[in-house]
Structures are given as C-alpha cells and as structure tokens.
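Deliverable D5.2: sample structural annotation.
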Amino acid sequence: MPDTTWGRRCSLTKILIVEDDRSTTGLLQTLFEIEGYQTALCPDPDRVLATAREEAPDLILMDYHLAQQESLPLLRALKADAELKAIPVLMVSGLDHSIECERAGASGFILKPFRPADLLAEIKRLLNG
C-alpha cells in the first residue's frame, strides 16, 4: 500500500522550477505535484530573482542552460542576495557541470537524464539537510 502521508508531509514545501523548456517544465511540475509539493515556474532568466522573492520557495531547481546561456551568473546572484542566499539551489544539466555549479554556490547537482526517484531523493536530502 502506498504511503499516503508523503503528500501531506510536504504540502507546504514549494519548489521554484527555473527551466525554459516547456515539456521539461511540465514533467517536473507534474512529478512534484504528485509528490505533494507546491510549484512555481520561472522560464525567464531575467525574472529569476524577482520570482524567487515573490514565491519564497523552499528550494530552487535550475537548469544550467537558460535561453542559450549559462545560468551560473543567476546562481551567483541568488547566493549574493541576503534575502535569497539560504534557499538551496539544485542545478540540472545534460553535461557534468557539477564542479562549476558547486563553486558558484549550488547546493546540489543532478545530471540529465535522471530517474524521477533520484531527483526526488536529492530534493529530499537538500530540504532535510
């Protein structure tokens, strides 16, 4: 029998998805909502800081490439902002940029393609960490 308390346990937990690919965003949003997370979306790299302030997420999931650019400057800006720096940021990419992301302040990195269970485990680790 499935654990039906999981969705209730994390029902107040919000994940900001920073991704400019609509199909990926839709899949992530569906996965997170099935697991009981609230989601907020930000496909526009120019709106990441403002959206993070408005939504006050518990975790930010950000693609390494946004609008054909690296998102490391955005990651650095998040970590330099007094209001936002404590929010864990999980970076995702199809190439292994884990070292660059860690140096820029990411809390974690996951390589695409990933299994949903692996992504959820990493999110749980970061939220409980």
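Annotation notes: The helical segments are 5-9, 22-34, 48-55, 72-80, 98-104, 116-128. Residues 10 and 37 are 6 Å apart (CA to CA).
The annotation will be released with the project's public dataset once the embargo ends.
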